[in-house]
Write a structure and sequence with these properties.
By secondary structure, the protein is mainly α. It has a single domain (2-177, 192-393), classed as Growth Hormone, Chain: A, CATH 1.20.1250. The protein has 20 helices and no strands. The protein has helices at residues 2-19, 21-32, 36-52, 54-64, 66-86, 90-104, 107-118, 121-135, 138-141, 144-153, 155-176, 193-201, 204-207, 210-235, 240-268, 270-291, 296-309, 313-321, 329-360, 365-387. Helix 2 (21-32) packs across helix 3 (36-52), helix 14 (210-235) runs antiparallel to helix 15 (240-268) and helix 16 runs antiparallel to helix 17 (296-309). It starts with a helix and ends in a 15-residue tail after the last helix.
Length: 402
């Protein structure tokens, strides 16, 4: 339980950092002179750095365990947060966000690794969803509470305070996090980093899961972490306070959705749960594109729907986990996380370029964001169709080490 609480505190920070740019974007635009495309690149830098770090993270989890892996990476996040608070230009801020992304990269995977080592595949989804659901409180904390501190102390002082919190979390990890019992010493345990990745890539059932993994989380995190604030401010005239409350509400619904998928998963299985939730998000994106500008209440309601049904992360991960042996868990779940976060980074970058291009051609904000949500809905629908053809997790036999 102590290890779960420590991981939960760390994951709250990770969720906070992946969403806080939506509220702080106005300060960065003013003080650093950033445009919408550069803001999108900042968020993409966090996600891409996070994603690329999954390869060494998976290798480290399998070789040295979660305690030393997580503590070391969190120190990188401390450095990145301090640099971000000192940044005076786009390049420095970009570098800082990449370092924070690297530092946060092993947090959730350390929890997944412990859950996968200690529980069966079905209970893995339960523990993972609990971690994601309760840890997602970091998302709403990056809404109205962050806006309060920005107004009271300024964004730089707030960021320096965050650096202190990250440093304290690293200390708690060193003192309190417990590694699982060691695995048997076999040749497969000592495979190289590249060979470990190859072992995951050759698993054909995962090929049909990868495309949806690449797109699905990117749609939700791009909407919550980057576009909800500019959309509500430019299309519906929301001020900072109203925007921050809407962002906080969407973050709360993301946390709630991560918990509500559990009873669905237990009753009907991973694939049907993911497909059902995915269809709802596709429809919400398309309705937002076509009619969201007509009513601020409708728009906010659709953002909440996307948050509630858009994070099937743990269920997709459990589906993929069922095709992995115990010795492949570290590299397997981190490779899946690489696909999740790499796709999210690409979605951030593409969405930023799309919005910038439409802005340069003189389109009104409602038209620009309409095309943005059409793009997201169509991309999600296409990959969901591929995912629907994947084999059921019930056909896999991958018992966990207890």
């Amino acid at each position: 339980m102590t290890s779960f609480v420590v991981l939960l505190l760390a994951y709250i920070l990770s969720q906070f950092f992946r969403a806080f740019l939506a509220v702080i974007s106005g300060d960065l635009t003013r003080d650093l002179g950033l445009d919408q495309g550069q803001l999108g690149s900042l968020q993409a830098a966090w996600l891409v750095a996070f994603a690329l770090s999954q390869f060494p993270v998976g290798y480290a989890l399998d070789r040295i365990g979660p305690r030393r892996t997580l503590a070391g990476f969190l120190l990188v996040a401390v450095a990145g947060t301090v640099i971000f608070g000192l940044s005076q230009n786009y390049v420095t801020a970009l570098t800082a966000l990449a370092l924070i992304g690297i530092g946060c990269s092993p947090i959730l995977m350390s929890g997944f690794y412990l859950a996968a080592r200690l529980y069966s595949p079905r209970h893995f989804a339960t523990m993972s969803s609990l971690l994601i659901g309760f840890g997602s409180v970091g998302d709403p904390l990056s809404g109205a509470p962050l806006a309060y501190f920005l107004a009271a102390y300024g964004w730089r002082a707030t960021v320096f305070g965050l650096a202190g919190i990250v440093a304290l979390t690293a200390l708690l990890v060193i003192l309190l996090l417990k590694d699982p019992p060691p695995l048997p010493d076999t040749p497969q345990r000592h495979v190289s980093l590249l060979e470990g990745i190859r072992q995951i890539l050759v698993k054909r059932p995962l090929w049909l899961i990868f495309p949806f993994t690449f797109v699905s989380y990117g749609v939700t995190i791009s909407t919550r972490g980057l576009w909800i604030a500019p959309y509500l401010q430019t299309v519906h005239g929301f001020d900072l306070a109203a925007t921050s409350y809407a962002a906080m509400a969407m973050g709360g619904f993301i946390a709630l959705g991560a918990l509500l998928v559990l009873p669905l998963y237990r009753r009907i299985g991973a694939k049907i749960t993911v497909v059902g939730c995915g269809v709802i998000v596709v429809l919400a994106c398309l309705v937002l594109a076509l009619w969201g500008q007509e009513s601020p209440r409708l728009a906010v309601g659709l953002f909440l729907v996307i948050g509630l049904f858009g994070v099937t992360y743990a269920v997709v991960m459990a589906h993929a986990r069922a095709f992995m042996s115990p010795l492949e868990i570290g590299r397997g779940v981190t490779f899946m996380n690489f696909v999740f976060m790499g796709g999210a980074g690409v979605m951030q970058w593409l969405s930023g370029r799309l919005v910038n291009t439409l802005d340069r051609h003189g389109y009104e904000p409602q038209t620009t964001f309409g095309w943005l949500f059409v793009f997201m809905g169509v991309a999600l629908a296409a990959t969901l169709a591929v995912y629907a053809a994947s084999p059921s997790e019930s056909k896999a036999a991958a018992p966990a080490v207890r």
